[in-house]
Every structure is written in structure tokens, then in C-alpha cells.
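stage 2 :: seqdesign
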């Protein structure tokens, strides 16, 4: 998790961001990453297409890439650049021209570039990640020793279903009904505990 505010321009960008943000080896995600205008102008001229420009003044704009993601895996750094588009947009010749400018820009910089549409995003994991967002903050006062014990229990796993485990937390620690589930959801959202529960 990057632990900073991000500004995303579409549901597809948001869903794609959630997947990258969940990965342990992602260290940063930069959205609407600006490209060097001199370079994109040169590339546009080389391939014979119009550089994107402001409508009224026809001044060339600074192009951007939707997501630039930095990874660190076993001490090895890697950066990828991704254009995130609706699949229908890829049928528009002008969109393809701009994407080709982006592709060549990142190729020149030695960065892997790709295009992601809604077709590449897994529906169920995205739904789960969107749901977990609501539990990233725990908006109730729970004694620290109880939180530590629940986190340890989550790590160990259980033969109980997730729902049964949450009910057990309420009974074991004298918490109001539903508190155990909210705490467990919070820990899962923050990736504090991984378990072998069958989610229910």
C-alpha cells in the first residue's frame, strides 16, 4: 500500500490501482504521470501524427500515462507504465495514435509499456478489494491487547469459518455483536493477518 492520496480519473483506473496497491512488491504508484513534451513532440512528428493539443489555443499539451508502477522484488527495482482504457476506446484511430506515442516514449526510456482494459481486470478480486477499502480504518476504541490477540489468531488460522471466528471473538472478549467481524475485516484490509479461513 502506497499510503498516500491518489487521484484517479475513471472506475477502470481505480480498479487497476487497487490491484497494484494490494501487491506486496509495489512500492509506489504514480497516476497521470507527465511525459516530456519535447520527446512526445519529436515522436509524433517521426510517425506522422498530430501531437495532442489544447482545443482552443492548439497549444501542444503535456501528455501523460495513466499509471506508472514501481516494484521492488528481492532488492531488484522495476518500473512499468500502463495506459488504462475502456476497450471500446481502442477502436478509435485517434486513441491508437496517442497510445503509439506513449508506447514509443516508454520504449525509448527502457520501460515496459502496456494497455489495460476492463477485460483484463478480474471481477471478483476487484469487488473484494473495493469492499475492503471501507475497513482500512477502525473507527472504534478496542483495547490494544485484544487487537494483538485477534491479529495473532488470524495468523494462526482456524477450522472455523470466517463468520464463526468473528462471532467467537465477540463472545470471547465480551464485545458487542459484529465488532469481531469489523476488527477482522480491518486486519485483512491492512494485510495484518493472513489466514486459512473459508470466507463466509
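stage 2 :: out
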Amino acid at each position: 500500500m502506497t499510503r498516500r492520496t491518489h487521484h484517479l480519473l475513471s472506475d477502470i483506473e481505480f480498479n487497476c490501482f487497487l490491484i497494484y496497491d494490494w501487491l506486496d512488491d509495489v512500492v509506489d504508484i504514480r497516476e497521470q504521470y507527465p511525459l516530456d513534451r519535447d520527446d512526445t513532440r519529436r515522436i509524433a512528428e517521426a510517425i506522422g501524427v498530430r501531437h495532442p493539443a489544447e482545443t482552443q489555443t492548439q497549444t501542444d499539451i503535456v501528455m501523460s500515462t495513466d499509471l506508472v508502477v514501481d516494484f521492488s522484488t528481492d532488492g531488484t527495482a522495476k518500473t512499468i507504465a500502463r495506459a488504462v482504457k475502456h476497450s471500446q476506446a481502442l477502436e478509435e484511430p485517434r486513441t491508437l495514435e496517442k497510445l503509439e506515442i506513449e508506447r514509443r516514449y516508454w520504449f525509448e526510456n527502457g520501460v515496459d509499456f502496456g494497455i489495460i482494459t476492463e477485460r483484463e481486470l478480474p471481477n471478483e478480486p476487484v469487488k473484494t478489494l473495493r469492499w475492503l477499502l471501507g475497513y482500512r480504518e477502525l473507527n472504534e476504541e478496542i483495547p490494544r491487547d485484544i487487537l494483538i490477540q485477534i491479529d495473532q489468531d488470524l495468523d494462526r488460522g482456524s477450522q472455523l469459518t470466517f463468520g464463526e471466528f468473528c462471532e467467537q471473538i465477540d463472545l470471547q472478549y465480551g464485545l458487542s455483536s459484529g465488532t469481531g467481524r469489523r476488527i477482522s475485516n480491518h486486519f485483512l484490509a491492512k494485510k495484518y493477518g493472513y489466514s486459512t479461513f473459508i470466507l463466509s
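stage 3 :: structure notes
- The beta strands are 26-34, 64-73, 76-84, 112-116.
- The two ends are 25 Å apart (CA to CA).
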